[in-house]
Amino acid sequence: MLTMKSSWVSLLLLSSVMCVSARDVILEFKLAYFRPTGACFRQIYGHSAALYGPEVTVQLCDNNSHWYGFASVDYLSKSGRSIGLCDKTKVSLLPLAVGIKCFAPSPCKKADFYLGAGIQPTRVHTRDCSADVNPRQTSWSVGGIFKAGAYLYAPHCVVIDLFVDYSVVRARGKNNCCGSSTVIPLKANVGGAIFGVGLGYLF
Amino acid sequence: MNVGLMKGVAFLLMIPVCTQTATVNSVIATINTGVTPAGLAVTPDNNFAYVANNNNYGIAGQDSVSVLNLNTNLPLTIITDVSFDQPYTVTINAAGTKAYVTNSNGSTVTVINIPANTVSAVITGFDGPSGFVIVPNTDRAYVNNYGGPIAGSGNGTTIMMVNLLTNLITGSPITVAQAPAAMAITPDGTRLYVACYVDGNDGTGVVDVVSTSSNTVIATITGFSGPFDIAITPDGNYAYVANFGSNNFAPFGTTVSVIDLSSNTIIETITVGIQPSGIAVAPNGKLVYVTNYNTLYAGSSFTDLTAGQGTVNIIDVASNTVLPPTIAVGLSPDAIAIAPDGEFAYVSNYASNTVSVIALSTFQFMSGTGCQVVNKFLMQQDVVNELTWTVSGATLPISYAIYRDAGLTDLVATVPATGTSMIYLDHNLNPNSTYTYYIVGINTANTASNPLEIVVTESC
Fold first, then answer.
1. Which of residues 401-440 of B touch A (CB under 8 A)?
2. Phi/psi at A157 (nearest 5 deg)?
3. In this complex, do B380 and A128 lie within 8 Å of one another by their Cβ atoms?
4. What is the ipTM of this complex?
5. Based on the domain organization, do B11 and B92 belong to the same domain?
6. Domain containing B419 — which CATH number?
7. A111 within 8 A of A103, measured Cβ to Cβ
8. Where in chain A are the domains?
9. Can you tell me the distance from the alpha carbon of A27 to that of A24, in angstroms, rounded to the nearest whole number?
10. How confident is the model at residue A176 (pLDDT cuts 50, 70, 90)?
11. Running DSSP on this structure, what letter comes out for residue A83?
């Protein structure tokens, strides 16, 4: 709960530093290829997954500023098999992110390049199909996200976002199973590299 | 390979053990019979046993045959007939419709109809008949004349053939050595092995081999000591002969001879209890059961005949060694018969007037291994011991009880059997710890096997 509160406080702080006169607002929907960096994640759920969700990017201070704030909500769901006994398991990730993007001056008016970073509160939910472990686990963790990408401007204020993100998030399991159970909770790396494309609208 | 896998959901598969299980190779019941029960036979459907009450004391009206209900292990009825004269053995045909009772003090064989349990015929012309063997898949049988009213007990020297369709003796008597006490026929019916007691002294007994095609003795195997019973393994490779010893009980016998039937030579002599009397091979051919009569003179000059603790020894056919345990039964255990399904053995206790019922092992553990595996999920892991074992046998277990202690008190689970190969997963364990399991198989007769020990020390 503490991590959730801090996330929302951060979002409010970010909003407060945005000038009322901010010029550019981009609302986009992203679809991405997620490549996990955690070895355990890869062994259980494979080397790839689909990640998707909306993101809003807002120019800060004035219309000449290179600094933008962003906020996003993504979702990932993947089935797999446990290491050892190959029991069925399913993971769902809900990464929230808020942060800053810095746009580099571009000679080309058709495109802008950016780098960004932010914090990433992430909800991790697993369903493990074995009678002798916690059948469901939910964990909130706060990690970080680093972003690089380019906005390509199309006619009619349509924006195409090509991006590469790198998220660093560690989740932690709980042992609330089965009374005298000796199930061992684990820390899990649920971060990864994200390659994707977004389709947005420039307001 | 049929693998029964019980992973994760072991709690769902637990089945209650509602009835008391019997330990393998233990006496689970004692059934009353008539006076001095001797030979006995079990019907092919495993439901009834017929016991010849020898009435050694000559009590009027006590020459009889007891019928035992093997489902309840209680006496069902007692058959009496004027033809009975110290009934000694019972032989039941393959169809389970007739029982042939040898009258050892007379000259007849009584035929009983099953299941009516009435006497249907009396075959005459013998002299102290003491064994009846039916040639497989034919209507012929052989009867050994141990010696009775004509030659005197123990002085007979012939075998006779009987036509079971006419209930008449056919052909000429086949001359064998003195005092033919017991017979066994090879599974293919080509050779009849006749254990001849002779005088019971060390080394004088013989086994004559009779060709059933020529009805002549084709070989004589020597070197026995009062051979009193003989049984052949189902594969026809070996015969086991109980050397009862001298009829004067000094010296008494303590051995079983093993005959290689391909060479008709004794290949092994196995020491068992005192006065091995009855002998039977389990239907799977892996074990031989021997009754030890153990009835000796307590006083000098052959006086005060006293029955000691009767026992049954188990011989492993593969190694020809005696296996534990020695099973205590009644007094003067005489004959032994094993049910066709191999689940129980029945021992006639001559001096106790009872039949002991022994629960047998109907299967063997062939292998058993265990290793530890870590079942790892994204945010939790479970340390699991994987136990694997295989069984074989005539009647496989219907369930297994898995324990963590040799005393069989720390029950981990009871799981249903699903084939000859089994896997059980024991969850929520401590990593890098040694665990020892004891797995007990329980067959349809509710007999629990000796435990299989599996020690888990290594990772899978």
1. 425, 427-431
2. 65, 15
3. yes
4. 0.86
5. no
6. 2.60.40.10
7. no
8. 2-202
9. 10
10. low
11. B
